[in-house]
Each structure stands twice: as C-alpha cells, then as structure tokens.
C-alpha cells in the first residue's frame, strides 16, 4: 500500500490526535515554535502544503497571513475548513499545485514532505508558486530519528542510514498512540531537493528542548540527545537583483 493510501486511511485518527491541544506537546510546545522561528517576517500570502487538519495554517491566519491550505485527503480538507478559524483549503496533489506561478511569498510544509512519495516533485512545485525572494519552510522527522525507528524493527536491525525507504512507526504520547507511515530520507537528500528546485538553503535547525521546557514536559527529555525534527528553509532567488 502506498504512502498516499495509508494516510487516507489514517486521516480520521490523525485529526483526533492533532486537534487535542493538551495532547501533542511535542508539536505545540517544541516543534511549532522552532518552525515559526524560521518563517521570515512580513509574509502576506502563504500556502500550507500538506495542511492536514489545518493547525499550522490556523496559527498563521491568526497572525494576519492570508493562507491557503492544500491536502490530498478529503477528510482532512473538510476538517481544515471547519476549524476555528476556518482555513480556506484546496483538495489537490502536492506534486501538481493548482496555482499560477509566483503567487505566494511563503510555502510552509509542516511534517508533510516525509509523507509525500514524490517529495522532489512537491518541492519543485512549491518553488514554482513562490514569488522571487519567497521562502519554503519545511519541518520533517529528523532522518536520524526515522533511521532509528527502522533499525529498531527486528527485520531491519542492520539497516543503513543511507538506504531510503518507507517505514511504519508507532508513536506513543501518554496513554494514546498512533500508527504513522512515512519515508526515511537523508539530510543531504532534502538539501538536494531544494537546490534542484532552484532554492538556496539559508537556514537549518535541529531543535533541542531547553532544560526549562523538559522540566515542564518530561516526555521531551530524550530529545536533549536525540534529534526528532529537522527544519530547513529554502529561499527562491530574485534574479532581478542578482549581479551579473
């Protein structure tokens, strides 16, 4: 079963998981703040690529950004549209965006690119719809974390970090769990995808929780030594200001 089909089946469970503000503290109190730190100030029109049920897009809406969400799951698009505030959302494939060239100054892909089989195609499309000087900000599962998840499975105990493949992972937070389906890719693969799409990588972070936040949320303690998320920003070069 493809990543797409697996995530269509998972959509309802994911909505319940993501919509509980007291549950996914990994996202709300750690991953999201770090992701937002790389968003350039002054963004006016943004595409939330692989928006899911819309939690990142809603955050940008509250900050005054004109946001369009896009997802391939009808269930998640419906959830994004009935959120508070409702997110204007399009049902479409991330590798074939239904937008004209250069219409966004920000594309944000929060924990979605590792779930898109043709990630290079999605990044190329994100670059196409970005205006010159605009940025693609992406957050993915850190490749070391996905490699460890694969290596912990008995049949892949000697898996190479450099072997890119799909994998399944059971994520547990307190008394709830969810079965996720993603693709493991290397750090260099993500960089090459951005550069091949004409984007200049000008920011990277492997967020590490502070002592204070670990004291408040002890479940983050393992991330003091093992990175869980990788954040990369790619900027579209404004050729009109490039020196000859």
Tell me what you see in this structure.
The protein is of the alpha/beta class. It has a single domain, classed as Vaccinia Virus protein VP39 (Rossmann fold, 3-Layer(aba) Sandwich), CATH 3.40.50. 34% of the residues lie in helices and 27% in strands. The chain has helices at residues 3-19, 25-37, 55-62, 74-81, 119-129, 143-151, 187-196, 211-216; strands at residues 45-49, 66-71, 89-91, 104-110, 130-141, 165-173, 176-184, 199-205, 229-236. Strands 3-2-1-4-5-9-8 form a seven-stranded mixed beta sheet, with helices on both faces. It has a two-stranded antiparallel sheet with strand order 6-7. The longest helix is centred in the first third of the chain and has 17 residues, at 3-19. The termini are far apart.
Number of strands: 9
Radius of gyration: 17 Å
**Tally of DSSP helical segments:** 8
Which percent bin holds the helix content? Answer: 25-40%
User: Strand-residue fraction?
Assistant: 25-35%
Strand order of the largest sheet: 3-2-1-4-5-9-8
Which sequence of SSEs, written as H and E, runs from N to C?
HHEHEHEEHEHEEHEHE
Tally of domains: 1
Which structural class is indicated by helix and strand composition?
alpha/beta
The CATH H-level homologous superfamily: Vaccinia Virus protein VP39
- In the CATH scheme, the class would be Alpha Beta
pLDDT < 50 runs, ≥5 residues: none
Kindly report the CATH topology: Rossmann fold
Beginning-to-end CA distance, first to last residue: 49 Å
